[in-house]
Amino acid sequence: MRIAYAEEKDIPALYRLQLLAFESEAEMIGSRDVPALRETEEEHRADFPNWRTLKLEDDAGEIIGAIRYRAAGGVTDVGRLMVHPDHRHRGLAKKLLSAVDEMCGGTKELYTCTKSWSNIRLYEKMGYRACREHTEDSGLSFVYMRKP
Question: Which end of the chain is more exposed for a tag (fewer CB within 10 A), N or C?
């Protein structure tokens, strides 16, 4: 396995992974109103240049995980941490978060649904702490977490 920066040619594979990875999130929270599932491939493609995206490839070169980040105002926003469902519970999400830690100093911030207990536990293990919550018009609540 290797972690490398994603390129524009990876967008279709990243988008397919996003839909697959966040489908289980939707099932867990009981709602398909998840931002990653509402995004179209065109929106994903348009937003791609605004982030640095790391991809995790298996030995055959298939993208099985990814994470993206961008720095603004002294804070690194971290988003779309995803691991293919067939490759979960092997420490790959932790590996991707650690890669961002190694590349970016300073404060990091991410968010997840307040019902995503497994995500929240992982982020807490990685040093993130809840700093605020936000409820959308849909009724879904998200917790924002920071790592100093």
Answer: C
